[in-house]
Design a protein that fits this description.
Order of helices and strands: HEEEHEEHEHEHEHEHEHHHHHHEEEE
Number of strands: 14
Number of helices: 13
Shape: elongated
CATH superfamily of the largest domain: Succinyl-CoA synthetase domains
Helix content: 40-55%
CATH architecture of the largest domain: 3-Layer(aba) Sandwich
CATH topology of the largest domain: Rossmann fold
Distance between the termini: 102 Å
Number of domains: 5
CATH class of the largest domain: Alpha Beta
Strand order of the largest sheet: 1-2-3-5-4
Strand content: 15-25%
Radius of gyration: 54 Å
């Protein structure tokens, strides 16, 4: 009772998933006798394949059916390749055919599948070996049959799409017993010709016609080439072993040229877009710089350069006044110290003389302690005098250094210091000239530099807007 009950649709969908996800059923080659063959008006083929024990329904859609090189009929023994699937409406397992050949070529299909499996297991089809195609190939080699329709189509397409490239033709047999060796030699020759790209191509044909492109020697020549190779062998439904080892597989020879090259008009448009973007970038940068330049020109110091000097002159006058005040202050302090020292010396000498006279009035029994005290006072007086002189010298040193700093500042702010860096001033009749438009041809003016004045005359005037 706990068993899950499925609807018919659920069961069919489950069966469909199982069949269509099984790797073994995705690429199958089977042989059998055709029966109930029906070519529909849509172009699809409906038929069954049978042998002595079993039968399976087959469908071949129009795109693949149009590539069949013979007219199928009941009783034909054929080899078909395709995939297994389930038709949901009837729940029937069907075989979806993408290629059909008469049984006479069955051995080639078997050999193809064997070689394909062998190369796959050895890693020849691995994407890590694929080389990137050059974006703008300028030297393109084409390995194909001489005078073939495929060569004519590729040459025309290359001239239309990418005429600036140089085409190098390497003619080879593309079918038959001798084609294998010829293809190997031409591929190697093209690979040693310092090309940007090689196209290996030929037109459509049966599996027997295309078989040289399945030969292991040709496959290895493509795989081992150092030049990127694009293959365009047969029609869209044709797949050869060189397609698996080439760097890019195209559906047709013409498609190989289209896949390998850009279109000249697209490149030209891309370059035009780059030029336009570059022009806009330069233009916007120019306008931005011009705006910044005009903003700078509006500065007062450019309209009237002497205004900068006026500020410096004011600062210089201020510093000179400070300097004069400090010099007077320094002199006052120096004179005061000198008067103080002189007065102190005189007072001390007077006190010593008076004390000496007093001491001379005493007899020889004058206390020794008092004499020692007197000597001590004399030493203190001498020490104080030395310290006073040292302090005065230090004060004088500090005032000199401050005075030197003031002189350096005055020199840095001096207009003559600015002129020493290459600047000058223009005057006409004692009037400062800020713009070229303020002078006319034949006007006389003066160029004031640090080391002198040049008398000048306007020979020619060229303004920005001119």
């Amino acid at each position: 009772m706990s068993q899950k009950v499925l609807s018919v649709t659920e069961l069919v969908q489950y069966l469909k998933r199982v069949v269509e996800t099984e790797p073994l059923f995705k690429n199958v080659a089977i042989v059998g006798e055709m029966s109930n063959f029906t070519p529909a008006r849509s172009g699809h083929f409906y038929f069954s394949l049978k042998d002595e024990h079993s039968s399976i329904k087959c469908v071949m859609f129009k795109t693949n059916a149009s590539q069949v090189l013979f007219k199928p009929k009941d009783g034909d023994k054929v080899i078909v390749t395709g995939r297994m699937g389930v038709y949901p409406a009837s729940g029937e397992v069907q075989f979806y055919v993408n290629r059909m050949n008469l049984d006479g070529l069955g051995d080639l299909f078997i050999e193809f599948e064997r070689l394909k499996k062998e190369l796959f297991e050895k890693g020849y089809f691995d994407k890590k070996y694929k080389k990137l195609l050059p974006e703008y190939p300028m030297k393109i080699g084409i390995v194909t049959g001489s005078g073939s329709a495929a060569l004519a189509d590729m040459t025309r397409t290359l001239k239309e799409r990418w005429p600036i490239a140089t085409q190098y033709n390497f003619y080879s047999l593309v079918q038959g017993d001798q084609a294998k060796e010829d293809l190997v030699n031409q591929i190697k020759k093209a690979d040693n010709s310092n090309l940007d790209l090689i196209i290996l191509a030929r037109g459509g044909g049966s599996i027997e016609d295309l078989w040289p492109f399945n030969e292991i020697e040709v496959v290895l020549a493509v795989f081992e080439a150092s030049t990127p190779i694009v293959t365009g062998v047969g029609h869209e439904s044709d797949v050869t072993l060189v397609d698996y080892v080439s760097d890019h597989r195209a559906a047709t020879p013409t498609g190989a040229v289209m896949d390998a090259t850009p279109h000249y008009n697209d490149v030209d448009q891309r370059i035009t877009n780059y030029k336009n973007r570059m022009y806009l970038g330069v233009k916007n940068n120019y306008l931005n710089k011009k705006q910044q330049f005009n903003h700078i020109l509006e500065k007062d110091f450019l309209k009237k350069p002497t205004s900068v000097l006026d500020v410096y002159y004011m600062d210089l006058d201020h510093l000179q006044n400070r300097l004069y005040r400090n010099i007077r202050y320094f002199h006052d302090i120096s004179n005061g110290i000198a008067r103080f020292v002189l007065s102190a010396q005189k007072n001390m000498e007077l006190k010593l003389m008076m004390r000496h006279r007093e001491l001379m009035q005493f007899d020889d029994d004058f206390p020794k302690s008092l004499m020692e005290k007197l000597r001590e006072n004399q030493r203190d007086l001498s020490s104080n005098q030395d310290q006073l002189i040292k302090d005065m010298e230090e004060l004088v040193f500090l005032k000199k250094r401050a005075f030197s700093d003031i002189l350096k500042t005055m020199k840095h702010l001096s207009p003559f210091e600015i002129m020493s860096r290459g600047y000058g001033a223009v005057f006409k009749e004692d009037t400062s000239i800020s713009y070229a438009k303020n002078l006319e041809v034949d006007d006389e003016f003066e160029l004031v530099f640090e080391d002198g004045i040049l008398k000048s005359k306007v020979i020619e005037r060229v303004l920005d807007h001119e």
